[in-house]
C-alpha cells in the first residue's frame, strides 16, 4: 500500500501525527481531511515515496509478538517424503508480482480521459490493465512463472492531491458494496478473462486485499462514519489503530465492521476464482481478527494460499501472531535485509544463513516452504539500488548470488516485475513501466540499458534457469533444510542440504573474492542430518544442475563433503 511504515529503510510511515479533538466524529472527519491536506502538502498521498521524514528506529515487536515461538514442526520431514498427487503451493516455481498499471497496456480504450491518466506522472495511471497482462502471458511463460500476484483490483477513489489510485490501495468501498472492479484495469469482465486465461496456462493468480483501511474519502466514510478509528492514535503507540498515511482506518474490533469485511472478502473470492490472497499491511490489523474471522471465512470459500505482508525486517517476533492466526506465511523481510547486507553491501553470508535457519527453527520446515522470500517489491527500493556506487561487475556478481539464494532456500520465491532483468532504482523508478524491449528476446540482450544493472538478457536467462531448476528438483520445493557450513568468520561460504524422497541436493553459495579449495565439512557428525540424509550423502556422486557458474566441484572423502569453489559462485549439486 502507500505511504507506509518503512522501518527497515529508516523512514517513518509518512503520516504526520496530529491529535484530533476529543469530540464528535464530524470533527474528527474534518480533522482527518485537514490532516490529509497536510499529507498532500508534504507530498505523502499514500504513495509511499516522494517524501522525506527523519529516520526512525526499527519498530518494537508487536505487543503480542513476544510469545514463545512454536515448536519446530516434528512431522515436517515425514510429510515431505510423500508428495501429494496435486501440486501444493510449496511447489510454486516462481510467484511473479505485477503492478498491473505499470506492466502492459492492452486496452487503450479504458485508460480514461481525465487527469488521473498521465503516463508521465509517477503518481497517476499509466494505462496498464488485465488485457495487457494477458497479452504478455507469453513472456511469463518464457520465464517459467507459474503464479502471478497482481495489485488490488477494487475500484479506486478519484484524484487525491497529486495522485490517483493506480496502485490499487485506495478502494472506494461502500455499504452495501457494489463489488466494482477498477474500470481502468478493465473491470470485472476483463478480470474474469484474465483468470480464465491464466488458469488455462497453469498460472495461478493471487489477489491483493486490504482490510485495514479504505481510500481517502471513500463512500464508506460517509455512509458508515462510525466504522473508523478516530485518527488520534500514533502508529508507534498502536499500529492497529493508527491512520496509516492518513488513510481511514477500519475498526475491526467492532462486530458490524468485522461482519462487513468478512462478507466483502467472502463475496470477492466467491465471485473471482483467485488461487491465493496477499493480505496488505497485516501489522495494522489485530491478529485476532484474522484468526477468528477473516481466515476461517475465506478458507470456507476455497482452499486459498494466504500470505501476509508485514514490512518489518527487524526479526521474526512480529510474525508469530500472524503465523499462528493461520496465514500460510508472510513475506520474509528479515531474510530480505540479510540478503541485501550479504549480496549488495559486501557483508557476510552468516546473516543469510541465520535467517533461513531461524525461520525453520521457529515455525517449522513445512511453514518455511509456504512463506515467500523476495528481493524487492513496490514498497522498497530495488535490490540493486543498495549496491549503487560499486563497480558494475561487483553489483552483477552479488545480484546473481541473490537470485540463486532466492530460488534454493525453503519458501516460495517472489519476483517483482523487472527483477528478472536487473532493474534498479528507488521510488518512483521502482515502479517504472515495463519497457517494450523487455518483451522482445532479440532486444533484451546487451549492456547499458538505463535503469538496469548488467545485461538484462543474461539476468533473464539466469532467472529462467533457476525457475526451471526449482521446478525440476522436488528437494528445492518440498525438501527439508540442513545447514552443512557457514562462514563464521572464515571463507564466505554457505552450504546446505535439501532432501525429499529420492531427490537430494547440496546448494553452495560463495560470496568471497578468493577461490576456496578442498573446504571440508563433516557429514557423519552433522546433527542436522537424518540417518537417511547421511546415507544419501556418504558415497554420493554429484552432478551440477544449474550450470551458471564454472569451476566448482563437490566430492565425499572420508565421511566429509569437500568442495572447491571459484570466487562469487553458486552451485546446485544433485546427488546421483
Ligand atoms: Ca489501458
Ligand atoms: Ca488498522
Task: Give an overview of the whole structure.
- It contains 17 helices and 16 strands.
- The protein is α/β, with parallel strands linked by helices.
- The protein folds into two domains: 92-471, Alpha-Beta Barrel (TIM Barrel); 478-575, Golgi alpha-mannosidase II (Immunoglobulin-like).
- α10 runs antiparallel to α11 and α10 runs antiparallel to α13 (392-406).
- The protein starts with 24 loop residues before the first helix and ends with a strand.
- Bound molecules: calcium ion (2 copies).
Q: Brief overview, please?
A:
It contains 17 helices and 16 strands. With 576 residues, it is an alpha/beta fold.
Q: What strand line-up does the widest sheet have?
A: 6-5-4-3-2-1-8-7
Beta-strand percentage range: 5-15%
Number of domains: 2
Total strands: the figure is 16
User: Share of helix among residues?
Assistant: 25-40%
Bound chemical compounds: calcium ion
Which regions are unreliable across 5 or more consecutive residues at pLDDT < 50? Answer: 2-84
**Overall average pLDDT:** 88
User: What is the makeup of the main sheet?
Assistant: 8 strands, parallel
**The named CATH superfamily of the largest domain:** Glycosidases
What structural category characterises the helix and strand content? alpha/beta
Query: What is the name of the CATH class of the largest domain?
Result: Alpha Beta
How many DSSP helices? 17
Query: Terminal Cα separation, in Å?
Result: 46 Å
Report the CATH architecture of the largest domain.
Alpha-Beta Barrel
The rough form would be described as: globular
- CATH-assigned fold name of the largest domain: TIM Barrel
Radius of gyration: 24 Å
